[in-house]
Each structure stands twice: as C-alpha cells, then as structure tokens.
Design goal:
heterodimer; A: about 100 residues; alpha+beta; 2 helices; about 20% helix; globular; B: about 270 residues; alpha/beta; Rossmann fold; 6-stranded parallel sheet; 5-stranded antiparallel sheet; 11 strands; about 35% helix
Chain lengths: ~100, ~270
C-alpha cells in the first residue's frame, strides 16, 4: 500500500471511488510477495501492481465489477487450473491469491 | 471522524508501525482490525474474543515485520481439534513496519553508491564519519541522515534500535574508526555486519579486533569481512550491488559466494 498511497490520495481528492487488490498468499514461484498491492479507480486508472504484469488486466476487470456492485469483495486466485480460477495464468507457473475490495473503510 | 484507512495512511507515512488485519474468507469478509503497538486496536472482525486473539498475533507479526494469512475459529480458536467441523476465518495480516536501517561508517565514494542502492531497497540510511569535511549532506544527499560522530557514541546512543532486519556496513579502511564500529555493531542484535578492505587489511583488522576483545568464534562468525559477494565488482556502484546482494542472500539463506569464504585477490 505504501507505494500507491499518493495515487489513492489524488483519486480520493477528486471524489473517485477506488478498489484495492492485495496479494495475500503465493504458492510456488510468484513475482510479488504478500502485501503487493494495486489500486483501480472507478474510471479505470491503475496504480501499483500485483504480479509481473501477467494478471493486472484481469484484476482491473474484477475491481471494476466490485466497484459497480456486480461482485462482492472476495478472494480471487490466479494460476490454478481448477474451475474457480481465472483463465489468465502466471508465466512463472505459480499461484497467487488476491483479496479485492472497495476502499470504503 | 478519522477512517481506518486514514489512520493507516498517516501511520505508514510517518513510519510508525501498524498492522492491518482483514477477513478474507469466512464470516464478515472485509471486516478489519488496525493494530498499533501500545494503543488500543481500531475496528472489529465481528467478535470480541476473535479480535483479542488475532490482535495479539498481529502484534507479533508486526514486530517480526511479516505479512501473511492466518486461520482461526469463529471465536479465535487456534488448536486444530477446535477447528474440526466449524467455519474458519481466514485473516490477512499486513505489517507496515518502519523501514529497516542501514548504518554506513565512513564517508567515502563507496558510501554514496551504497546509500543509493540501499535507498532503492527501502532502507533508512545513516552515514557516520568523524571527519566533518567529509560527512556532509551535500556529498550524500541520498542518505536520510549524515552524522559527524564517532561510532562508539552512535552505538551507545542508538545501538538498541538495531535488529535482525538492519545492517551495519563499515567502509572506512581505518582501524581508528572501523575497530570501534565493529565492536559497537557486535554489541547489538543487528542482522548484518559487513566490513570493507582487502584480504591484507582484513588480516590486520582481525588482529586489532582481537586486541579489542573480539575473540568469541560465534561473534567473529557474524562478521562479513571482506564485505560483499564475489561477483568481481570493481566500481563503487558495482561494489554496492555486491554488498546489498550479500545482505539479501544472508537473509534468504541462499548459498551465494561471499568474499569472506574465498581466498585470493578480490579484484583480479
């Protein structure tokens, strides 16, 4: 969060709603450790990153769905081959678990 | 009314330790607890007992500067028998510990490069040298502070603040300065102590350190001297990379070739 505070503050100042995605767990080889975070404003601006660029696009979509109320805040997993997982994977072969929620607290 | 986020933001920006606990799975997904050492927790995960137990564990995580997911029963149960046939709560504990410190002794060219790389890695950098013409903020603008002081004084004033995440790098090449700096560092729980110099300088320095009372093998083992990984670094910038790479590999426990453990000329 430390590295995305300036962007979050700018968006808050403009009155824009924001969703935050944080890496909470990594299995196997993962590009970023737990705590890596990314913020998405309601108009689709992005700050920070949660992987080496592999899953950020999918995270933006999920964050916007949560901001629009189409999806509850939740854990999402990237890199699994089971049905719950997103189609996009990590090129490094690992699995990352993200928690995505609106910044309304 | 200040929100949890605003309290978190202010503490992160002022480098005060804080941990954010978030329920990521189970009942009350998204519920939060904000942990501040010495102050009451803010927010709730939905149950007083859960708050108390998670708060205690999060404080320990914060002290160790670790971040990760923990599992509990709905009222904070942690023993495996208590978790059978019950909904578990997964919480994400995110620690925002103050940045680790790097103290660099000696205001030389290597110091500027090392301070720069250390800043990139997130260290709070202190440069210390007794010579006031060299120890100036103008020469080391990247350092968080530049002190004109003797090592003994700095260690007696602030040595207790050093811990396993921190590093002391002694770059002076001057026994007047590096002996007290090493002896001061040995007296702390600092995680990394590196001392610069050729193998000849190292041998002479070890004699002086022995005279100063450094004879315990466990203590001598803590010294990374000569400092750095054996990557053939030559310039101050390359040497800074070699030092920081050694700090990383000591922390992660990976086998990387340290200069200390080899023989022969450092620059071939």
């Amino acid at each position: 969060m430390r590295d995305i505070l300036d962007d979050i503050e700018r968006w808050r100042h403009d009155g824009r709603r924001i969703a935050v995605a944080r890496v909470v767990d990594v299995e196997g080889s993962g590009p970023r450790d737990p705590g890596a975070s990314m913020a998405v404003s309601e108009d689709g601006e992005v700050a920070g990153s949660v992987s080496g660029g592999c899953v950020e696009g999918a995270v933006v979509g999920e964050a916007l769905r949560i901001l629009h109320g189409d999806q509850r805040p939740r854990l999402v997993t990237f890199g699994y081959s089971d049905d719950d997982a997103f189609a996009v994977g990590l090129t490094c072969g690992g699995t990352i678990h993200l928690f995505i929620e609106p910044l309304d607290w | 009314m200040t929100s949890l986020y605003e309290t978190l933001r202010d503490r992160i920006r002022s480098n005060e330790p804080v941990a954010l606990v978030t329920v990521v799975d189970g009942p009350n997904v998204g519920a939060k607890l904000l942990i501040r050492p010495g102050q009451p927790a803010l927010g709730t995960l939905g149950d007083d007992e859960l708050d108390r137990i998670v708060g205690r564990d999060a404080l320990a995580e914060l002290e160790a500067a670790t971040t990760g997911v923990r599992h509990y029963g709905p009222r904070g149960e942690t023993t495996p028998e208590d978790l059978i046939d019950t909904d578990t709560v997964a919480v994400f504990v995110e620690s925002f510990a103050p940045p680790p410190q790097m103290w660099i002794f000696g205001a030389v060219d290597f110091t500027a490069a090392l301070a720069k790389v250390a800043k990139m890695l997130g260290y709070r950098v202190t440069v210390c040298d007794a010579r006031e013409v060299f120890a100036t903020k103008r020469r080391f603008p990247m350092a968080d502070e530049v002190l004109v002081s003797w090592p003994g004084r700095l260690f007696s004033e602030r040595g207790e603040s050093l811990g396993p995440r921190d590093a002391v790098c002694v770059l002076t090449h001057d026994s007047k300065f590096d002996v007290p700096a090493v002896m001061g560092a040995i007296g702390t729980s600092v995680g990394y102590i590196g001392v610069m110099g050729s193998r000849k300088t190292h041998d002479k320095r070890m004699e002086r350190l022995a005279e100063a009372g450094l004879t315990e093998p466990d203590q001598i083992e803590r010294l990374m001297s000569p400092i750095g990984l054996d990557i053939g670094a030559r310039t101050p910038e390359e040497t800074a990379i070699s030092i920081c790479a050694e700090i990383i590999s000591r922390r992660t426990g990976r086998q990387s070739p340290s200069l200390r453990d080899g023989a022969g000329a450092i620059h071939s």
